[in-house]
Each structure stands twice: as C-alpha cells, then as structure tokens.
Amino acid sequence: MVDTPGQSTAAFSRRALIATGALGLATAGGVGAAAVGTPASAGGTPARAAAGVTRRVTIYAEALPGNQFGYGLAPGQATVPGPILEIYEGDTLEITLVNTTTQRLSIHPHGVDYSVDSDGAPLNASFNNPGETRTYVWRSHEMVAAAGRRFMPGSAGYWHYHDHAMGDDHGTGGIARGLYGALIVRRRGDILPEKQFTVVFNEMMVNNKMAPNTPMFEANLSQRVEWIAIGHGNLFHTFHLHAHRWADNRTGMLEGPADPSQVIDNKDLNPGSSFGFQVLAGDGVGPGVWMYHCHVQQHSTAGMAGLFLVRNADGSMPPGAEEAIHRFQGHMKAAEDHTAHQ
Amino acid sequence: MVDTPGQSTAAFSRRALIATGALGLATAGGVGAAAVGTPASAGGTPARAAAGVTRRVTIYAEALPGNQFGYGLAPGQATVPGPILEIYEGDTLEITLVNTTTQRLSIHPHGVDYSVDSDGAPLNASFNNPGETRTYVWRSHEMVAAAGRRFMPGSAGYWHYHDHAMGDDHGTGGIARGLYGALIVRRRGDILPEKQFTVVFNEMMVNNKMAPNTPMFEANLSQRVEWIAIGHGNLFHTFHLHAHRWADNRTGMLEGPADPSQVIDNKDLNPGSSFGFQVLAGDGVGPGVWMYHCHVQQHSTAGMAGLFLVRNADGSMPPGAEEAIHRFQGHMKAAEDHTAHQ
Amino acid sequence: MVDTPGQSTAAFSRRALIATGALGLATAGGVGAAAVGTPASAGGTPARAAAGVTRRVTIYAEALPGNQFGYGLAPGQATVPGPILEIYEGDTLEITLVNTTTQRLSIHPHGVDYSVDSDGAPLNASFNNPGETRTYVWRSHEMVAAAGRRFMPGSAGYWHYHDHAMGDDHGTGGIARGLYGALIVRRRGDILPEKQFTVVFNEMMVNNKMAPNTPMFEANLSQRVEWIAIGHGNLFHTFHLHAHRWADNRTGMLEGPADPSQVIDNKDLNPGSSFGFQVLAGDGVGPGVWMYHCHVQQHSTAGMAGLFLVRNADGSMPPGAEEAIHRFQGHMKAAEDHTAHQ
Predict the structure, then answer these.
(1) Which A residues in the span 15-54 are in contact with C, Cβ-Cβ below 8 Å?
(2) Which of A242, A285, B207, C183 has the fewest Cβ atoms within 10 Å of its own Cβ atom?
(3) Is the CB of residue B173 less than 8 Å away from at least one CB of chain C?
(4) What is the C-alpha to C-alpha distance for residues C70 and C63, in angstroms, rounded to an integer?
(5) Under an 8 A CB cutoff, do B36 and C147 touch?
(6) Whose CA is closest to C37, among A144, A45, A145?
(7) Closest by alpha carbon to C191, among C113, C273, C255, C264?
(8) Which chain A residue has its CA at the smallest distance from C307's CA?
C-alpha cells in the first residue's frame, strides 16, 4: 500500500513510534508500551505513575509544492497532515524542530505540559526563525487525586499540534498551508488500533484537499481503525461518518454499561478542537465504500467529502466498490466543472 | 388535540410504533417492548442480546404545498418533520419507501446499521427514482464487550433520518424542503415518555416554519415529555429551552450520583447532529408558556422561536397563558411587518 | 490587587457570597456552605435534600460609559460582566433588580427554576420598565430519583444570567452592551476555588473588550482557579487556554478512574452556552504568561485573546513575564494600527 499522508498502519509509523523508537525516536530509560487490552490496574483505581520515558524526535518543517508546508520525520518527507505523534501518560517528548523554510514558524501542542519556552507562541518568543533549529519539550502526566474523591485530569487524549508563528502571532499562515498533525497521549491499558487516519477539516478542505482528491482511507473488514479528527481555520464544521458510530467520550468506547455517554456519528469539528475514536471497519454493516463528510450542506457539496473503503477481510475489493469510487470521482469532477463554468 | 407535525402522544404513533406494530408496522417474531423503568439487568451488566424483532413500515415521500416535501406513514399523510421512528437495540426496521414525487430521493439514517444498498446515498446507487419503490433495511445492536473492560457502543440514541439524493448527492434539496425526521433507538429499560416533540433547526427555521407559525408544543403539568432536537442545513445554532434543563448525555438523565455529565439548557444544534432528553413539564417551575428558541440573537429575533405550553395538571389553561400566546403572535407579527417594510 | 471585572478572589466577593451573606445578601434560615472536599455522602448516593437557604440580593442595572450597560451589587459598581452569583443546590436566590436606566431591561437566568413572572422575558411580561424595581426569584434543587435507577438532574452547573428585554424581546441590545454575568450552582461537596475568572465571548470581544484591553487574569503558582466561560451574540467561537486542560464534564475534574469524559483544552463557546472548570495555575508547566483566545484564526488575530499571568508562588513576577506582556500589548497595538489603516 502506498503511504498516504494522514494514514498509517501498525507496521509503519505508529506502533514503531510507541514501542520501538524507530524513525528518529530514541527512548531513554523507559519501559515498553503496554499491550493491547491491559487495564491500568485490576481494582479500578489508577496505577501508580509509571516511570515515564523520554522520546526524542527530529521534525523537519518544509515547503511543499502548491504553496503548502508540512512537518516530516526525515528530510524530504514532510506531509499534510504531519506524522501522528504518540506517547503514554507520563512520557516526555523532546522535539527538535528543524526549520528548513524561509518563514518564521513553530510547533505548538494541545493537551500536554510545556514551559513557556516550549509554548511555540511568539508571545513567549518561542519559535524558529528561518533556517533555525530549536528543541521543544512536551511532558505529560497521569490523573492526580484531588479532594472529594475527584481527580485532576491526566494528559490522555486525542490532541493535535500546529504552527503558531507563521503569518501572524497565531500561526494563521502556517495552519492554512498545512502545518498541523495529530498528537495522541494514551492511558496505560488503552486498546491500540491496527490502522490510524488523521482527518483535518481546514476551511473548505480535508487535509488541505478537496474532493475528489481528498484521502481515501482503507481497511479490511473488522480491522480496528482509529480516526483522529482535527478542526482548523475560520469555518465551523460537523464531521459525519457513514455506517459507523462512536461514544462521545475520551476513547469512543463505553467504559461499561453505566457509561452515560451519547453515541454519535456526527460531531462538531471546529477550529482548535480534536477528538478521536476507534471503529471495527464495516462491523455489522459489511464491506463497501462509505462516505465521510462535513454535514454542512454547502461544504459537502463543495468537496468536503471523502471515502472510507472497507475491503473484504482478505483485502479483496467488495462488489460495487470500484463503481462507487468511480462515481465519487466522476460526480465530484462534474461538480468541479460546473463550478469552473460559473 | 390536533395532530401537529413533530408532536406525538403516547396514544398516537410512538407507543404504537414500539409495542403494537400499528400504523403499517408488522412485527416478526419478536418480543414486546420493555416496560417503563425495567432496567436491562439487575447486576449492572448489559443483558444478553435479546431476540430482536423485525418491524416493517411503508413510508410515502410526497410533495406538499409551498414547494415542500415530507415523509408519511400513509398516502396523503406526509408531514414536516416526518414521523418519529422508534425501535429497541437489536431490532431491525425494514422501510419500504414509496416515492410519489417527480424527484430522485432516498432515506438515509444516522446511528443504525445498514449495508451499502441501504445507504440512501447516490454514491452507492441507493435511492428511489421518481415513482420508484425501494426497501431499505436498518439494523441495530446492543453494546459488545471489547478488551480492557470497555464496550463497543450499541445503537441506542436519539438519531434522525433524511433524504440524501434530492438536488445533489448529499440531499441538499430534499433536506431544505422538509425530508427529515427523528429516529430513536432505545436501550431496554429506558424510560418511555408520555409525549414527544421533534424540533428541527434548518436554516433560519424550526421544522421549516418561522415564528409565529413555529410549532406550539403542549403538555400538562408533570407529564414526561421527550424532545428530539435535530440540526440541518448550512447554519449553526444553539437550542435553548426556558425553565427546563437536562444532562448532556445519552438520555438527558443522570445514571446516578457519580454521572459526571454537565447539566445544560442550551446546546449546539448543528447540521447532521441530533440529541434528545426528557423533562417533566413545568417541574419545579409551574405551568405557563415557556419559549424554546435558537440563542443566536439574530436567529431568535428573525423567528427561530416557539412556545412550550405547560397546561395545568387537569389540562386547563394556566393564568396568563392566553396573553403570552397572543403576545408571541403579535410581537412576531410586528417583526414580520418590520422586515417586510425594509 | 485592583478589582477587575470578571475576576474575583476568595477574600472578595465569591466566598462571601456563598458563606457569609455579605454584599447585600441576607441568608434566611439555612445552613452554612459545605466545606471543600466534603462529599455529598459516603455511600455514593445523593444526600437528602438539605434545607436550602434563601439569599436576597439587590442588583443595580446601570448605564456605563461607551454605550455599555452593567449589573452591580451596589449603586455605581456595575461591571461588565456582572458579579458572579453563587448558590448551592436547594438554595433560593431572591434578586431585587433596580433599573436605574432609561431602557426596558430584565434579568434572565439559565439552569435554575423560576415561575413565569420571574422568566425575565417580555413574553411573560417579566421585565423592568425604565426606573422600575422588580424582584425575581430563582430556586434550585438536588437530583431526584426516577425509574430505572436514573435521576432527573439537579441544578448544579456553571450557568449564567443576562438581559432578555432591552432592544427586542430577546435582549439583543442588552446582551450586546454588557448585561450578562456568571451564575454558579454548586453541589454540596464541590471543591471551592481560590480565584474565579469570568470570560464572555460576545461577538468579536472578550467581556466586551478587544486586545490588548482584554482582561489579564492573574494567579500565583498552584492556586486553584475557576474559569467560567460564557458565549453570547451572533458568532460562533472556540475557547482555548494554553498549557492547561480540563475534563469536559460538570466540574472539569474526573469523578474517578472510570469517568469517561474527554479531557480538552479547546471548546465550542457559542451563544447562550456556558461551562466552567478549575485548574491549578501553572501546574506541571510552571509560572509564566499564558494566552487564552478564541481559536478561530480571524477572531484571535482581530483581538479575541487575553493573558493568564501565573506568578511565582510568592506572588513575584517570573522571568520573561514582563517582556511577554509588553509583547502582547505591542503586537496587538500593531494589529490595531494595521486595521485602522485599511
């Protein structure tokens, strides 16, 4: 399979990033990643803070064709969105950002802990000048007991990172041109997926593309796939996925029969917000081509739509899938022509 | 009481739909609906999957006056919004959609399980041509245990259905003209309401009407009423109900003292999203006329507002209610005149 | 410290409001406020309804310079936003609203219980004419058991109040000019904060100000600060706070290891909605100047941004903080000049 930006498989970047320190990551003094399905502890109380590891990664910010910019884990490999970065609660991520461009830029994370010099914001003079290399340190922590049997929340979540310095002090230029990506902080015991897709709604685009050039995400029937959805820009959107649904909570799964979370298949995806969930591809609905799209009518019609191809369990194409893909490309092409003629 | 679109009583469509198979529904091999307040099981774990029933319903898509379209359970009975469809987790709903119009159209559900040929989307060649009859099958399921003591979510929720084929491949034309309705999937043990109201925020309208012609929902003091709120179109809204509130979770009620859900009386209601909740009419506040409205100032002022009339327990009008209703009609009429003169 | 609108300390208004009845509040026949960390009951079931107290407060609605209006707890002390009003579930708040202005206006609360004559809406003839004094009664209640082990929600929440009568029947004029404030209903056992900040996103402003004149909120390292965020007007926003995060539930804290709530640092803040949370200032990230801002790029760039100054534990300024503050004022001043020239 071709490596598509925003799409990763367990064999490629994600699992490696967590567990083996490949792709420029060096682990320092830490334990390995928890296995799938290992709960934090048996008794329902959080495990003691595990000895977090420090992972080091070099990220290259690069100019791309079409006035786009991207982050990548090696020179010449920048993509839009950037790579999925993934750690466990308690871990530290040290990012050496190499700015290969002629623009001021930075990397600013959501959710994790950082001191002012790793803020990534010009407010705190935290950015890379053109050609400059700078290290940002992102820490994370487990939940901490507070009074009244409550807990101050830990860092676990489907977060994201983005430029905060190109164009203006809020990174408006960098975000518009593709400097963003997913950041996942897992709680020990979280279920790990087999595939991951990053979907960024940014202005009227998905991952800075419009249909029919939006990403087609692929999985085999019953594979556990993880979606990380991120909002950026100036417009408000709602993310809808056909034939699949998830709980509107931290993991997208229910914590048990008393979990009160609403189950949804359509969710606001607005600037600066992110969420994630896992589904079993085609579970209960079968293989086929399913749309994901913004449910704002003018947005979906204009091209904020893409395909989730669920192949047969053996990887072969299900009946009708080729036709649906051609239909998607054709209809959307027609819409483009129509727009061009106006 | 006159049967108002978007408003149903236990004696009319809803209870019948669940329990007795009236109104064109045929049950096949299933058990009856659970009684109010019967928990799924005593021990806090989900009941074993009950033998789901298959219900069959014929829905007629019809043209209505004023360039509107509606779904109905019998010829000549189409309304905007369409009827409330309601099943239990595990049930299957077989919908025979009769397209009596000259337009291509379909029916696409949120939340439930369907194979590609019941997608309702032109992408999968799943729609009714003018005059055509086609059957769509919607299945549902209970939650399923996953690793780590988590559960993949079941189908229970306040969902909705809508056209996905009129005007363009996303049903923009059908949705704009009224082809939408509420779909409820209940978990066994859920509390059943005495009355139900469907509120659809679609562009600057409520159920495709503007004040003072928006629906006036009615209940007697302390009746358990269920609101199903649905968003459509291109605009973003917030739904506010005066003097009543609900938990921001699956049911609108708290699952117990440790349920962390925020309690709210104002919630985003954006294209493709839906939620529902139950309130006891006038509970703690007494009978009277209460407004529901979009809280975006320009939207409420322009007519995205309606009334919730809580009558006395015996059904009589509370003091001041008539005056408030006349005031609503008058003020809104004044706003209309003002707009017309500009 | 100067008393900044929207910012209160335990020594000033909040704690007094809850526990001692200062600032014009008179307690009537009630018990004192629960101490920090006292759970509602040991067994996980809600405590029996405590004997609620009735608190009486006089609020003055006043015209302010710059065509603004505000609510205040004494003549000449109106602010934008108005004072934080705070009670426990079960309490009643009797508000005598003195309208010192030449405009029709009212006070309408979210979340609490009120009969039609305290609705604050012209629909129910509930408002103050110019110069008029009128009493509004807001009641509250604890959760109540329903069938199926569920509970109808209590009143606890981060709510708000606002005008509903100036300019039009929805208070569009009063809200635009500053007639709004925070209302907190606590559950017994809730953790009380040391400082409180009210942030209102109203059109393109924060508390009706634009940067660099937006509020700079201040706390010392590790102080427990409570943020109450409120949305108003016509525009949609997302509230983002740098280097701090909270659970997306009633309190912002986790109820325990099984609390499924998503942890977030960016949340939709739209007209009529509100939420609140507590953070330990600079916890895990250290002292410094942290931005809060709307994450819609055009909004933050236009001035929907402010500062959260986390001082050292002893109240002294951390290194770099003065520079960051000057930078904020300068950059935003440059943006203003740039806008003015266009």
Answers:
(1) 40, 44-46
(2) A285
(3) no
(4) 7
(5) yes
(6) A145
(7) C255
(8) A123
Residue keyed to tokens 């935290």: A126
For residue B2, what pLDDT band results from cuts at 50, 70 and 90?
Answer: very low
Q: Which tokens belong to B297? A: 């100032």
Structure tokens of A183? 């950041």
Q: Which helix (H) or strand (E) holds C249?
A: none
DSSP labels, C23-72: TT-EEES---PPPTT--S-TTSSPPPPP---EEEEEEEEEEETTTEEEEE
Return the residue matching tokens 């509230």.
C239
pLDDT digits (tens, 9 = 90+) for A255-274: 999 999 999 999 999 999 99
- Å between B288 CA and nearest CA of chain A: 31
Phi/psi for A108 (5° steps) reads -120, 125
Residue B117 in contact with residue B124, Cβ under 8 Å? yes
User: Sign of the CA dihedral B156, C150, B292, B198?
Assistant: positive
**Cα–Cα distance for residue pair C2/C21, rounded to 1 Å:** 22
Check whether C216 has a pLDDT greater than 60: yes
Cβ–Cβ contact B155 with A under 8 A: yes
**Residue B302, min C-alpha distance to chain C (Å):** 11
What is the pLDDT, as a whole number, of residue B7? 60
Mean of per-residue pLDDT scores for chain A: 87
The H or E element containing residue A31 is none
Q: How far apart are CA A275 and CA A227, in angstroms?
A: 8
Which of B254, B293, B327 is the closest to C153 by Cβ?
Answer: B254
Rg of the Cα atoms in chain C: 20
Could you tell me where the DSSP H helices lie in C95-190? Answer: 172-176
Radius of gyration of chain A (CA): 20
List chain C residues with CB under 8 Å of B231.
none
Q: Which chains touch C (3 or more CB pairs under 8 A)?
A: A, B
Q: Does C170 touch chain B (CB under 8 A)?
A: yes
Distance between first and last Cα of chain B: 38
C235, amino acid identity: L
State the Cα–Cα distance between residues C169 and C121, nearest whole angstrom.
7
Asked whether A122 and A129 are in contact (CB, 8 A), the reply is no
Over its C-alpha atoms, chain B yields an Rg (Å, rounded) of 20
- Interface probe with A: pick from B41, B117, B139, B150, most Cβ of A within 10 Å: B150
Looking at residues B296-322, what average pLDDT do you find?
98
- Chains touching B (at least 3 CB pairs under 8 A) are A, C
Residue tagged 């989730």 (tokens)? A308
Return d(Cα A127, Cα A133) in angstroms, integer.
9
Contact B255 A258 (CB under 8 A): yes
Q: Is B257 close to C141, i.e. CB distance below 8 A?
A: no
Q: Which of B51, B13, B49, B57 is nearest to B31 (CA)?
A: B51
Q: Which runs of consecutive H residues, i.e. helices, occur in A179-267?
A: none
Kindly identify which residue of chain C lies nearest to residue A173, measuring between CA atoms. C297
pTM for the structure as a whole: 0.90
3-state secondary structure at position C145 = strand
CA distance C232 to C270: 6
Structure token digits, residue B198: 């469907």
Chain C residues lying within 8 Å of A155, measured CB to CB: 245, 263
Closest C-alpha to A294, from C295, B274, B271, B163: B271
Dist CA A220 CA C261 (whole Å):
30
Residues of A in contact with B151 (CB under 8 A): 253-257, 259
The residue among A99, A294, A137, A89 whose CA lies nearest residue A201 is: A294
* Global ipTM: 0.88
- Three-class SS of residue A154? coil
Determine whether the interchain pair A257/B151 forms a contact, defined as Cβ–Cβ distance below 8 Å.
yes
pLDDT, position C99 = 98
